[in-house]
Amino acid sequence: MIAHDVHLRIGSLLFEGVDQIDLTGPFEVLSRIPNSTYRIYGKTAEPVRDIKGLRLTPDATLAEAPPLDVLHVPGGFGQQALMEDAEVLGWISRQAAGACRIFSVCTGALICGAAGLLKGRRATTHWASFHLLPFFGATPVNQRVVVDGSFVFAAGVTAGIDGALRLAAELRGDDAARAIQLYMAYAPEPPFECGTPETAPPEILQQTREAVRAITAQREETARRVAARLGLVVGA
Questions:
Q1: What is the CATH number that goes with domain 8-230?
Q2: In 3D, which of 111, 61, 44, 105 has the Cα closest to residue 84?
Q3: Label partner for 196 (CA 20 to 30 A): which of 2, 6, 123, 222?
Q4: Is the Cβ–Cβ distance between 155 and 126 less than 8 Å?
Q5: Is there a catalytic annotation at residue 194?
Q6: At what angle do helices 213-230 and 202-211 cross, to 10 degrees?
Q7: pLDDT for 133-187, tens place per residue?
Q8: Which residues contact 219 (CB under 8 A, 6 or more apart)?
Q9: Given 100, 106, 112, 194, the catalytic residue
Q10: Could you please report the per-residue DSSP string of 100-111?
């Protein structure tokens, strides 16, 4: 836990094609952490759209961001372009070097991996991209939230809320995180037992795999190029 009198600068990366709940789910938590400032940073100050068209606007550009204490990297289909974007990867690497916590959600883990941050770490990501983690030197752990040192990894999409609450507890203690959870009335009772590949009916799982097959194949191609750049050898 960080001392309560230490002001925390928390920042999230925003990009075209983000999955908004990877950003806005954790925002509900991170923006309520006591004695902190929360901001959203993009390559430019222009609005972007999430994968379903929701318009989102950064508070400032990457170049304007101060050194952050907490770096939040969300995912989404737009993650593809960032995995070989030297400007963004350099910014993530520099911010992570000075941050006390780095928090990835969903395929934000792949962006962190492309920045060279996953080597030797235990990590998780969205189930459809889980098999790609070794391309970045990570050990895949099939859990909703994985903590490895200063890194917190949340699996797919809504897991970002769970990961952010875990992060809030690490930063300000369990009671602070409990208070945030209570304010949010976060007590999920999903109508179906279908939130993981293990619990989904086989036909629903197959249908969903087909829906993301193209982006998953693209991600693997990119992951292989990143692995080569990082000097990592991964089996075929």
A1: 3.40.50.880
A2: 111
A3: 222
A4: yes
A5: no
A6: 60
A7: 999 999 999 999 999 999 999 999 999 999 999 999 999 999 999 999 999 999 9
A8: 79, 80, 107, 110, 129, 132
A9: 106
A10: SEEEEETTHHHH
**DSSP assigned state of 155:** -
Q: Average pLDDT of 45-64?
A: 97
Domain boundaries, the chain: 8-230
Give CB contacts under 8 A, 24+ apart, made by 64-69: 65/11, 65/39, 65/41, 65/91, 65/95, 66/9, 67/9, 67/95, 67/98, 67/99, 68/9, 68/10, 68/11, 68/95, 68/98, 68/99, 69/2, 69/8, 69/9, 69/10, 69/99, 69/100, 69/101
* DSSP secondary structure string for all residues of 79-102: HHHHTT-HHHHHHHHHHHHH-SEE
pLDDT reading at 102 higher than 90: yes
pTM of the model: 0.96
Rg (CA), the chain: 17
In 67-106, which positions are buried (b, 16+ CB within 10 angstroms) versus exposed (e)? ebbbbbbbbbbbbbebbebeebbebbebbbeebebbbbbb
> Residue with structure tokens 């690497």?
93
Among 159, 162, 155, 209, residue whose Cα is nearest residue 181:
162
Mean pLDDT, the chain, whole residue set: 96
Pairing of the two strands 151-154 and 122-123: unpaired
Please state, in angstroms and rounded to a whole number, the distance separating the CA atoms of residues 227 and 198.
29
| Residue 15, token pair as written in the block | 């990009």
